[in-house]
Design brief:
By secondary structure, the chain is an alpha/beta fold. It folds into 2 domains: about 5-90 and about 155-295, Queuine tRNA-ribosyltransferase-like (TIM Barrel, Alpha-Beta Barrel); about 300-400, no CATH class. Helices cover about 45% and strands about 15% of the residues. It has helices spanning about 45-50, 60-65, 70-75, 80, 95-105, 110-125, 155-165, 180-205, 225-240, 250-260, 280-285, 295-305, 345-350, 350-360, 365-390, 395-400, and strands spanning about 5-10, 15-20, 25-30, 30-35, 55-60, 90, 135, 140, 150, 170, 215-220, 240-245, 270-275, 290-295, 305-310, 320-325. The strands form 5 sheets. A 6-stranded parallel beta sheet has the order 4-14-13-12-11-10. β12, α10 and β13 (about 270-275) form a beta-alpha-beta unit. α5 (about 95-105) packs across α6 (about 110-125), α10 (about 250-260) runs parallel beside α11 and α14 packs across α15. It is globular, with a radius of gyration of 21 Å. The chain starts with a strand and ends with a helix. The chain binds one RNA strand through α5, α6, β14, α12 and α15.
Length: about 400
RNA sequence: CCGGAGGUGGCAGAGUGGCCAAUUGCUCCAGACUGUAAAUCUGGCGGGAUUUCCCUACGGAGGUUCGAACCCUCCCCUCCGGA
């Protein structure tokens, strides 16, 4: 039977288990590399399997706009389209639709701080702000590709996700920034709840076979404890799987939010922390009972020259366990990125060569760098999984993060 | 040798009397990155004190001027064309 989640080991709130899906088993805790557009940037399925990646995350928003859900369905679903026969999770598109428009108005730090100039330029060119409109029905937004207008609703999101054939899907949720008042946040989670119920309804309408996907509800509530708890209870009451979204703030804030949610939610349901996946957060999240993570960190960091390194050569939370391949001191380095790493990149290439590839803008850099980072995170989570089985988690965490 | 063009910060290349320590691009240096509009973005890039500051600088040496990268004279060098 599909979608069977089983916890096999626990240690405090931390747990290790397995989730069965139509496309195979995922061992938990696990990390989903992000493959927004039906590809983990710079890595093919062959490399992903070689690394040991068990699941990837793709995105409803991007795929509905290009190449379109109907087209992918005609190819037999996303698995066949991209030639990946292991589990796929799709995001609902809620986050993108939010970050592409609403963020501009409300000033979401997560989105705005990084693309302010770009946003402003586009705003100027079009002569009007790109605001997305939220109504009870759904979100009207403009495509980032051609400016065309679209309406995304819970029903549409679920429909698209089933067309794509994902194993794990996410209910369509509303997003508010961390700066919102308690009242505004309350309104937001009420909308998320309504949309959640409509997502469930559509899901039940479309999925009845034994191969039906697992539907995650999304817990929101910003940094307000009562709202997070309320949202968590609602999600637990109505969904078979729990995801936590709308995460803002520092690592400690993040811990608080996770703690509130995992303290309320049923133990036997899988829990996914949306969009989070720096090393420090993986340890903290797992300690507090998270089973799944997805994050662009390893892939994006790789492309931007930030490569993960182990404790032995200076990896620590302050530097996000990463070094910068661009640094001048790598120019003549005959060392690999990380002497302890057994990945293809580290076994075969020097820092000097990788730096050269980066500086020369060569495609191979992206392949080798992304391979390393995804490998690093995948193996780290593997190690964490083992540590839970062997009741060593606390020790391992202390080794990485200190006391 | 004659004619023509030109010599600006690591490179290319603006500026042609004060708002120039000098536009811009590249290189270079550093940093950021958490449900990917991201092979992106931000900052620095003569030296020193390190709020409006000082010094050395636009091939070299003089000169004109209150003031010159910018005008004049001579010298050196590069490129193109002709002998």
């Amino acid at each position: 039977m599909a979608n069977k989640f089983k916890i096999l080991h626990t240690g405090g709130r931390a747990r290790a288990g397995r989730l069965e899906t139509a496309h195979g088993v995922i061992e938990t805790p696990n990390f989903n590399p992000v493959g927004t557009q039906g590809t983990v940037k710079a890595l093919g399925p062959r490399e992903l399997k070689e690394i040991g990646v068990q699941i990837i995350l793709a995105n409803t928003y991007h795929l509905m706009l290009r190449p379109g859900a109907d087209l992918i369905e005609k190819f037999g679903g996303l698995h066949k389209f991209m030639n990946w026969d292991k589990p796929i999770m799709t995001d609902s598109g809620g986050f993108q639709v939010f970050s592409l428009g609403i963020a501009l108005e409300h000033g979401s730090s997560k989105v705005l701080s990084r693309s302010k100039n770009q946003e402003l330029r586009i705003k100027h060119e079009e002569g009007k702000p790109r605001l997305n409109k939220i109504t009870e029905e759904g979100v009207t937004f403009q495509s980032h590709l051609d400016g065309s207008k679209h309406l995304l609703t819970p029903e549409k999101s679920i429909k698209i996700q089933t067309q794509l054939g994902a194993d794990l899907i996410v209910a369509f949720d509303d997003h508010e920034s961390s700066k919102h008042t308690h009242n505004q946040m309350l309104e937001s989670i009420e909308l998320t709840e309504k949309w959640g119920l409509r997502s469930i309804q559509k899901y039940q309408e479309l999925c009845h076979s034994g191969k039906k996907p697992l539907l995650y509800g999304v817990v929101h509530g910003g940094t307000h404890k009562d709202l997070r708890v309320r949202s968590a209870r609602f999600t637990d009451d109505n969904f078979e799987a729990i995801s936590i979204g709308g995460i803002y703030g520092d690592h400690k804030q993040l811990c608080r939010i996770i703690e509130w949610v995992t303290g309320v939610v049923s133990d036997e349901k899988p829990r996914h922390l949306l969009g989070i996946g720096e090393v420090e957060d993986l340890f903290n999240g797992i300690e507090l009972g998270i089973d799944f993570f997805d994050c662009v960190a390893p892939t994006r960091r790789a492309r931007n020259g930030s490569l993960y390194i182990s404790l032995k050569i200076g990896g620590r939370k302050e530097n996000h366990f990463a070094m910068n391949i661009k640094s001048a001191n790598n120019t003549t380095s005959k060392d690999p990125i990380d002497p302890d790493c057994r990945c293809y990149t580290c076994l075969n290439f020097t820092r000097a060569y990788l730096r050269h590839l980066y500086v020369a803008n060569e495609i191979l850099y992206h392949q080798l760098a992304t391979y390393h980072n995804v490998y690093f995170i995948t193996k780290l989570v593997e190690k964490i999984r083992e540590s839970i089985k062997e009741a060593n988690f606390k020790k391992l965490k202390e080794k990485y993060l200190g006391k």
